[in-house]
Amino acid sequence: MIIINGTLVQSDAEYISASNRGYTYGDALFETIKVIKGKILFFEDHYFRLMASMRIMRMEIPMNFTLEFIESEITRLIEAKKMMSSSVRVKFMVNRKQGGLYAPNTNDIDYLIFAKTLNTNFYTEQTTPYTVDLFKDFYTAPGLLSTLKNNNRLINVIGSIYARENNLDNCLLLNTNKNVVETLNGNIFLVKDNNIKTPPLVDGCIKGVMRTQIIKIINSNSKFTLQEASISPFELQKADELFFTNVIIGLQSITTYRKKIFSTQVAQNLIQQLNAILNSN
Q1: CA-based Rg of the chain, rounded to a whole angstrom?
Q2: Which of 91, 139, 210, 272 is the most buried (most CB within 10 A)?
Q3: What is the pTM of this model?
């Protein structure tokens, strides 16, 4: 069961056209949202990122696309699927309406909402081994479009296949300047002594919602200094700790990069602080 333009339907197979511009041209944006027992986490951040991304993509934002409306649509789908007592992964996607070739006939949009149950509620400390390496077959181009959650995820798909073929848990993506940008599915953070670095948006990383939350937590902690600065691959083996973030898993510690073994202490502490904030709200 999904929602398409406000209508609950049992299957997407009969309702998504082969001419859908998200399918034919990647002319689409999406938000991946975590909902715990009916509570949408960090929803304002998701909403304002989506609105800003639609403006960048020259999409026409419907008058009824208020924060309250989108929240009610997500809740309606979760209720219809009887997921209100579960932890849920929601994908909210907008695509430009079909018509035209590269130049669309209209800037009006369709929207779709999908929901799937998750196994865990709040964020848990990740203690199992987690191995990564660089993915160097293709590079991310720095720029505004690279920060958007759009449907062009080819580098993430091919990188995921590469990781599987090489018995890796994940890969680190590089931009065309050969700096580390992010992992295949999250924003990267590097810990060295009392300094924590994460790539700036101008390097081409996704403007992650969880990235924003973790930056806020780090900035409120006098023990650490947060620096948004480019990360060279040469810095990785000198780091004390590496972790990445997204809204579904929270924080994932990276334990191994090539022959380097990392600590996980800082990430575990940040997860505890993150859960404390969620529990207090």
Answers
A1: 19
A2: 210
A3: 0.94
With b for 16 or more beta-carbon neighbours within 10 A and e for fewer, the 92-130 pattern comes to bbbbbbbeeeeebeeeebbbbbbbeeeeeeebeebeeeb
- Distance, in Å, from the CA atom of 19 to the CA atom of 106, rounded to the nearest integer, reads 14
As a whole number, the mean pLDDT across the chain is 94
Q: Which of 168, 158, 83, 78 is nearest to 129 (CA)?
A: 168
List phi, psi (to 5°) of 108: -65, 160
Q: How large is the angle between the packed helices 209-219 and 43-56, nearest 10 degrees?
A: 120
β-pair type (2-4, 7-9): antiparallel
Whole-number Å distance between alpha carbons of 218 and 267: 11
Model pLDDT, residue 14: 59
Q: For position 124, what pLDDT does the model report?
A: 85
Q: Which domains does the chain have, with CATH numbers?
A: 2-117 (3.30.470.10), 131-280 (3.20.10.10)
Q: Find out whether 53 and 149 touch, Cβ atoms under 8 Å.
A: yes
CB 230 within 8 Å of CB 236: no
